[in-house]
Every structure is written in C-alpha cells, then in structure tokens.
Amino acid sequence: MTTALLFLAGFLLGSIPTGKIIAKRMGIDLQKTGSGNIGATNVLRSTGKLPALFTLIGDMAKGSLAVLLARSFQVSTWDEGIIGIAAVLGHNFSIFLKFRGGKGVATSLGVLLVYAPMAGLSTIAAWLLIVLATRISSLGAIVSFSTLPLVIYFLYPGAKEKLSISCIMSIILLMRHKDNIYRLIRRTEPKVGNKK
User: Is 99 helix (H, G, I), strand (E, B) or coil?
Assistant: First the structure.
C-alpha cells in the first residue's frame, strides 16, 4: 500500500508542467509554440535562456524529490526506482495536460542524480558534450540514455535493481523520442536555438 501511494505521489509530482507554467506567465502557450513540447528545449526556443534554465531545474527537481520522498519511507532500491519512474511518467503524461506532456529527459536526470548519482553525473556530462558538439538536444538525450544501462553496469556492479530500472528508464525515453529519431535519420531535426 505504501509503495502504491508513493507511486501515485511521484506521478502527481511529475505531472506539474513546469515549462508550461513558466511560459504562461510570459503570455505564451508552450503547447502551441515551437515543437509544442513542455520541456526546457522548447522553452529556450520560445521564451529564452533564463526561463529555460528555470524549467530545467524544476523538471529535474520533480524527479529528485520523488526518489527522496520514496527514500524517506525506507522502501527498497527497486521501489525507489519505480517511484522515480512514476515522476517521469507523470511528466510525460501529465494529468494537468490531459495526459500529454514532455519527453522526460530532465526529470529522468533528476531521478538519476539521487538514485544513482555517479551515473546521473555521467549521463549529464555525455548529454552536454553531445549537445555542445552538435547543437541537437534530442541526440544528446538519445545517446546518453542508450548507454545508461552500460554505465550503471560498470559503476554499480552487482546492483541488479539499478540496472533494471535504468533499462526501463532508457526504453521509456527512447520511445518518447521516436519522432526525433526519425527526423535525425532524415537530417531534419532542429538544432538548439532555432526558432522552429
């Protein structure tokens, strides 16, 4: 019962549409602007750097807080990860946006920073390096999360629960990026800063 309630709490926490709230305060409907996504990349594209930074921090905080909440109830490592994933799912399918939402990159990173800190930092570093080199945010997310299970395997040897959670997290993120993958193959994926 405790785990089920924490899963629901994690989902509700993740459902808070940080980017949409921030953009709305600036008179912009984020879901009708740019890519229509509620994440930091579209906020950057639609409103600017500072709102995008606040969105990134807010979306990461949702994932981190979900895991910290679970940890405060001393649940298992597996349950901690599942409740973190609940926050990611909440972001992706927000109850406040009729079960629409973002791609879950920042929220997933927030989960990792608490759940598997070394892997979280490694994933952020990989994402940043790829984005700086290519200016394509989705490519950074796809590559860094595709390699996440391997990173977990080497950084946390024997931690089967963390490895399983990382695989689930990676699959969810890749599924949410299927359209981006298609555009990357066709070389039509917009770059960070492009107003489209």
Answer: coil
Give the tens place of pLDDT for each residue, 145-164: 999 999 999 999 999 999 99
How is residue 38 written in tokens? 């509620």
Write down the pTM of the prediction: 0.93
Q: Which long-range contacts (CB under 8 A, 24 or more apart) does 164-171 make?
A: 164/78, 164/81, 165/78, 165/81, 165/82, 165/84, 165/85, 165/115, 166/116, 166/119, 168/81, 168/85, 169/81, 169/84, 169/85, 169/88, 169/108, 169/111, 169/112, 169/145, 170/145, 170/146
| Secondary structure (3-state) at 94 | strand
- Report pLDDT digits (tens) over 75-104: 999 999 999 999 999 999 999 999 999 999
Torsion of CA 155, 157, 158, 160, to 10 degrees: 30
Tokens of 65: 């807080």
Paired strand residues for 94:
100
Please write down the HEC assignment for all residues of 121-164: HHHHHHHHHHHHHHCCHHHHHHHHHHCHHHHHHHHCCCCHHHHH
87, 111 contact by CB (below 8 A): yes
* CA atoms of 85 and 42, how far apart (whole Å): 22
CB contact set of 91 (below 8 Å; sequence gap of 6+) = 14, 15, 59, 62, 63, 101, 102, 104, 107
